[in-house]
Amino acid sequence: MKIYHASCLALFIPSLASAHITIASGPALANKSGQKVTFAVSHGCTDANSKTLDTLSIQIDIPAGIDPSSVRPMPSDFAPTPVVSKDGANVTSIKWSRDPAGLQPEDVAYYEITLRLKVTNVPFTRIPFVITQVCRRPGGTAADDVTVVWTGPPTNAEPSPQLVVVPVHATGWNKLVLTTNVAAADFGTYFGDAQIVWKGSAAFSSNAATAAAIAGTAGVSALTADLASGDQIWVRY
Questions:
Q1: 138 neighbors 53 (Cβ within 8 angstroms)
Q2: Which tens digit of pLDDT belongs to each residue from 138-174?
């Protein structure tokens, strides 16, 4: 990813944002309406002179995996009146823009942006959001703006924040039939709030004490193999 100064589009400068935009609200439930997803904007952008600039605007594009007709933005301390772009009844993007007169001389604040939405029925997946962050110095013009587009996998310099989607579940035991593969390396991500996960006589837990009990129980093995679509598991929350 690169950043662009509007005054010199031929000048490409390596990304200079030093902290990621992340999802602060935790995992979302699949196929459930009315959930709030909060994005943490913990840092502005750095210009070519290594000066950190305050954030002027944030635009969030609505990705696959989100019901676009369900999306509703919340006003924010960052900007009270979000602008919604639609294709018919479907929301395609939302932009929060600040009054340039309120920009700080440097990047000193933490901001949060929240959407109310429905995640489609895609448990055990991660949904990436493309976010465009524009920064400006006080008294500056659009020609001085620095833009960072947060997109792509975690290995990118400015990766997309990814919404972790877990299945709808109740307190106690839940029988789940997987509709997608789940890598063992992702068990902590998708089952981090579970007490224990069972497949046959193998079990997994993110809790160290429970994991130790699994290891010390005769006839029980640690669940370390990838799970496949169609597998039946029991999960206690």
A1: no
A2: 999 999 899 999 999 999 999 999 999 999 999 999 9
Domain boundaries, the chain: 2-166, 173-236
Half-sphere exposure in the Cβ direction for 120 (13 Å, CA): 12
Structure tokens at 181: 């593969």
Q: Name the pTM for this structure.
A: 0.88
Number of H helices, E strands in the chain: 2, 20
Which two tokens mark 198? 């069972």
Helix intervals (H) in the chain: 187-190, 208-215
- The CATH number corresponding to 2-166 among 2.40.30.10, 2.40.50.100, 2.60.40.2230, 3.10.20.90 equals 2.60.40.2230
Q: What percent of the chain has pLDDT over 90?
A: 86
